[in-house]
Each structure stands twice: as C-alpha cells, then as structure tokens.
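ARCHIVE CARD
Drawer: 12
Card no.: 0347
Subject: one protein chain, sequence and derived structure
Cross-reference: see card 0346
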Amino acid sequence: WNGVWLFFMTLTPFTTAWIGEFPNSMLPEITYSIILLLWSISFQLMNRQVRKDNPEMQKDPTSSLKFRLPLYGGMLAALVVSFLVPILTLIIVGITTMSLAIPMMRGRHI
C-alpha cells in the first residue's frame, strides 16, 4: 500500500497547481477531491497493514476508522459539491482538515 499512497501523494501538487490556474472550474476540483479521497483511503489501508505486520506496535487512536470517518465524509461532500459550486470544494476540504488536525495537535481524539 505504500506505493499506492506515494502515487496519490505525487499527484497532489499537480491537482493543486491545476486548481490554482482554474479555481472556478469543475474538472480540477473533482480531480482534486478524488485524489485526496484516494490518498486518505490508501493511507488507512497502509496503516492497517503496518499494524498487522507489527502487532507489538502501540495503537494510535487517530489511526482508527472511527477517527477518520469525518475525513472521508468531508472528502465525499467536497466531491459532490464540486459538481455544483467548485470553489466550495476547497472550503470543505479546509474545514474537514482543520476539524481533524486540531484534536490531533491537542493530543485528543474525537
């Protein structure tokens, strides 16, 4: 899963630059949403495999599916909104990211 995750990660700068050139266009926003969603899912799968291969590893509460469901929901919402109002995709992605980053920085989980 590491290779899949790295592949989607390498596509992120391309889609970000594309959105920078065409912020109100639908196709760059859709592509961006899909790439971020697939990147997040592949990280979840890679993380699960790492924990499976290393059972003595301490479980991190942020790696649970329960913690990451709001992320996936936000990414799916951004994908749907990108068909209607493309620029709102970035706002939804930003809010979703911050809503998960703040508890992580405080050392708490949702």
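Annotation on reverse: The chain has a mean pLDDT of 84. Residues 12 and 35 are 7 Å apart (CA to CA).
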